[in-house]
């Protein structure tokens, strides 16, 4: 089973920041948080991952709480092309290093 | 450009026939994976390979077979033993399976429909 909990769906206005929450209350100290997104009928696209510190790249920022029990993916200036399903995944040695995929959050960017 | 190529994008099969899905990567990755995705759900692991001539069953391997004769290629055969083969199939690769701090790259998928 997936070790994360995400809202089923979210809306965001075009040009605003999209903040996608993820709960992973049972995460262990050596487990990474990964984010992928999947635009309809395409393969998943890697966005970002982190262990303890906040991370930023050209696509997004990842904010991990100090206790590591939750995180937030931030798309700073959402565009219509950011409409997708966003998956938050905890990667664990306990699950044989596999990515265990939940149902994700359907993010809809509105004009 | 480096990446993963899956072919074909759409595939139709008659019941009782085997069909092979192609996956090729030029990223020089050791690990490769096959996933299945059903509507509205996340991905489920079918098979993975950590190195040439080695592969392991994932969570839903029944009715599927794979081979890994070359580093670049990891074809998946959907056999007639797979009871519900209609799905979206995704291939992925990564530098190594046992490296926690590295991402997987995905192909664009093959949508298989049994008619």
Structural write-up:
The complex is a heterodimer of chains A (111) and B (115). Chain A is mainly beta. Helices cover 0% and strands 45% of the residues of chain A. Chain A has strands at residues 9-13, 18-23, 32-38, 45-50, 55-56, 61-64, 70-75, 84-91, 105-110. In chain A, strands 1-9-8-3-4 form a five-stranded mixed β-sheet, with no helix packed on it. In chain A, strands 2-7-6-5 form a four-stranded antiparallel β-sheet, with no helix packed on it. Chain A is globular. Chain A starts with 8 loop residues before the first strand and ends with a strand. Chain B is mainly beta and 115 residues long. Chain B contains no helices and eleven strands. In chain B, strands 2, 4, 5, 6, 9, 10 and 11 form a seven-stranded mixed β-sheet that branches. The termini of chain B are far apart. The chains are: A mainly beta (111), B mainly beta (115). The A-B interface holds A 2, 30-32, 34, 41-46, 49, 51, 87, 91, 93, 97-99, 101-104 and B 4, 6, 40-45, 58, 88, 90, 92, 97-98, 100-101, 103-109, 111.
Count the DSSP helices of chain B.
Answer: 0
> What general outline of chain B do the C-alpha atoms trace?
globular
Q: What is the overall silhouette of chain A?
A: globular
Task: Return the string of H and E elements of chain B.
Answer: EEEEEEEEEEE
Biggest interface: chains and residue counts?
A-B, 23 and 24 residues
Radius of gyration of chain A: 13 Å
Write the layout of secondary structure elements.
The complex is a heterodimer of chains A (111) and B (115).
Chain A: E1 9-13, E2 18-23, E3 32-38, E4 45-50, E5 55-56, E6 61-64, E7 70-75, E8 84-91, E9 105-110
Parallel strand pairs in A: 1-9
Antiparallel strand pairs in A: 2-7, 3-4, 3-8, 5-6, 6-7, 8-9
Chain B: E1 4-7, E2 10-13, E3 19-25, E4 31-37, E5 43-51, E6 54-57, E7 64-66, E8 76-78, E9 87-94, E10 105-106, E11 110-114
Parallel strand pairs in B: 2-11
Antiparallel strand pairs in B: 1-3, 3-8, 4-5, 4-9, 5-6, 7-8, 9-10, 9-11
